[in-house]
Amino acid sequence: MVPIKWDPPTDREPVPKKSQIVIVANRLPFHRVRRGGTSEWATSPGGLVSALTPVLKNRTSCWIGWAGAAGAAPDPFEHEGIHNHPVRLSRDELETFYEGFCNRTLWPLYHDAVRTPEYRRRWWRPYVEVNRRFAEAAAGQVARGGTVWIHDYHLQLVPAIIRELRPDVRVGFFLHIPFPPQELFSQLPWRQPILAGLLGADVVGFQTRGGAQNFSRLCRRYAGAEGTRDELSFDGRTIHPGAYPVSIDVDRFEALAASEAVQRRTAEFRQRLGTDRKIILGVDRMDYTKGIDIRLHAYRGLLRSERITLDECVFVQVAVPSRERVEQYGELRSHVERLVGEINGEFGELGRTPIHYLHRSLPVEELVALYLAADVMLVTPLRDGMNLVAKEYVAARTDNTGVLVLSEFTGSAQELQSALLVNPHDIDGLEAALYTALHMPPREQQDRMKTLRRALRRNDVFHWANRFLDTLAA
Ligand code: F6P
To answer: Which residues have any ligand 1 atom within 6 Å of their CB?
Structure first.
């Protein structure tokens, strides 16, 4: 790779309007929406935006990312106090970088290979080129001695490129998805450059200690790093891998749960679904890692064996459309929709539907109203870096009722130990857990939910961001 030329600032020439902190993520915190005849910027959902907004607002800062459409990037723009610096992705890069290397190679590989990762040589170069573009944009924006915080699997080469372009800055990297063990990661034909890319950071954060441990072990084996799980030396520098479990803005979810409008909506949902029926809820991106089909099988199993009836309960599944141009996602959608149809066809009665299925994204107020209506929340991923839906449900349950059924293969299971933890591969176990959840006495619900809420309070999203940035500044 030919390094780009960049003239470092000197003491005599302070760089004007550079940012003390630069966030680099695949997507910008705002996306374009059409309202009426015009289009405008709207805040992207997700914890990252709400976590980082307060951090960014107090300093000169900017966010580097893709604006969500192929082709030329919009001009840099200011929105809600954040300076956005869009990076372009061509139509070809959308296919090879984003859909290909990111979502057909890395995504399945990092999620326990629950779908077969595809190793296509023609996807690697676009990954390198797009990473370089993001890194150059960040190097051009960060102030002397400033901080660059890079997020997620799309941008694993960025830390080393920034280090090469701007040795004066602190570089942090946080991976939002799992980091796989050696048995899986070793498959990756580009394992060495990816590890070397990450080793460009001063702090490399993971959702769990297991992820940090996998990373350190792999760096020693394949990248020539030395050291321990918590401290590596590489290229004459010290790198700190560590676990920084991401979280949510708990106050925001509590406030939404307390709002009159949301509570009115909850009452409406309950009325429509049947006030005497227990509501089981699932909320996920439509992704094969989430185990949506598995929980439908468990629900069907309980109905078939008549351990539960439609008089007692109803299932609501919200599946947010995601990565629809990637083949495996289309297949999953067909599979889930066929299952929903089969179950509704087999058990439904006129005016009584076993599964209410919504394939769309909902505003956060609607989601919180659903969380408040749900007696049981089913979160059953086969593998998930964290799973913030589980945390949102707990945050919304301010009266300490409700039962969270949670896959042990999520990052959040490590903090939310008082949930009903399940192995999603074990359908009998999942059926039993769902049955237990539906019949859990109020006292036990209260005890468990209180403990869950305490755990959540200990680590909200502000705690997460500050902890990471404090380590990076140390
Ligand atoms: O959880 C990983 C992640 O990439 C998030 O950063 C993002 O919000 C989500 O998946 C959706 O993915 P995409 O940006 O591909 O739509």
So the answer is: 26-27, 46, 152, 176-177, 322-323
